[in-house]
Amino acid sequence: MARRSFAHSRVLITGASSGIGRELALAFARRGAGVMLAARRESELHVVADQCRRQSAGVDAILLAGNLTDPAYRRALAQTATEKWHGLDILVNNAGVSAHGRFAGSDEATLRQVMELNFFAAAELTRLALPLLKQGERPAIVNIGSIIGHRGLPLNSEYAASKFALRGWTESLRAELAADGVDVLLVSPGTTETEFFDHLIAKRADLPWGESTAIPAAAVAEQTVRALERGRHEIFPNWRGRALVYANRLAPGLIDRVVAKLGSPPP
Ligand SMILES: NC(=O)c1ccc[n+]([C@@H]2O[C@H](COP(=O)([O-])OP(=O)(O)OC[C@H]3O[C@@H](n4cnc5c(N)ncnc54)[C@H](OP(=O)(O)O)[C@@H]3O)[C@@H](O)[C@H]2O)c1
Predict the structure, then answer these.
(1) What CATH code is carried by the domain that includes residue 64?
(2) Which alpha helices (H) appear in the chain, and where do they start and end?
(3) Which mutation among 45, 94, 186, 220 tests ligand 1's pocket best, with the greatest number of atoms within 8 A of CB?
């Protein structure tokens, strides 16, 4: 099958006000796609929409601000795609949050908040978008997961749970939608240079591995768009993250011992 191209595609991106989502909007717009930007901070969405239009004259950049954990906002996004675009070709479930700290010192509200955005909002927005996507042009769903959706790490249990859930659901969905011609791509970044670590729901501990190996958000976005062009199903944009996932498949006991040291309380 010919490579996918995005000229005139209609792309809905969640979490488009910063980080990877913002860079994805710019990467799709550079290729001539129309972008619909979703997140809570309306002023930031306007900045990203203006950047898309300035960078690619004539590109269609629309936005709708709201909280993705609100079902009414998710319905409004699907309705806007129907009214303004009469359909949708690509849905990117990118919005996400995390919390740092030991599970025992955390609470139910934190777990539910992380799951609500990272998993339930993505799944339910997808449910609403599916009828539009099934009539789209070379349709695809992109789910932004994480290395921590392949290998759980200490002090990050709520986030790991949400990204494992996202990955399992993504695999089931891919199989169910193959006959409809809807591609499903899972992107599993490692540490990326964004505002992510400033937006934690709770910070009860510092992660022992730090952020020193972070890669630029633009690199994650560019690899994601190229993977879609080639019809790939799974990518790991950060080589260190990919190495951890492969090492864990080959020697899970060894990795268990290494991460248990990272999770031990300080003496
Ligand atoms: N940065 C990393 O190291 C890293 C590593 C692996 C995976 N990821 C994943 O990459 C994705 C993007 O994160 P990022 O790194 O680009 O961080 P980011 O810059 O903090 O972006 C998160 C985005 O989600 C939006 N968002 C948060 N809560 C929301 C809500 N309730 N409703 C609507 N939008 C909401 C934020 O916008 P508003 O605040 O305006 O709502 C923002 O646009 C996430 O799924 C994250 O799990 C990140």
Answers:
(1) 3.40.50.720
(2) 19-30, 42-55, 71-80, 108-115, 122-134, 157-177, 217-229, 239-250, 252-263
(3) 94
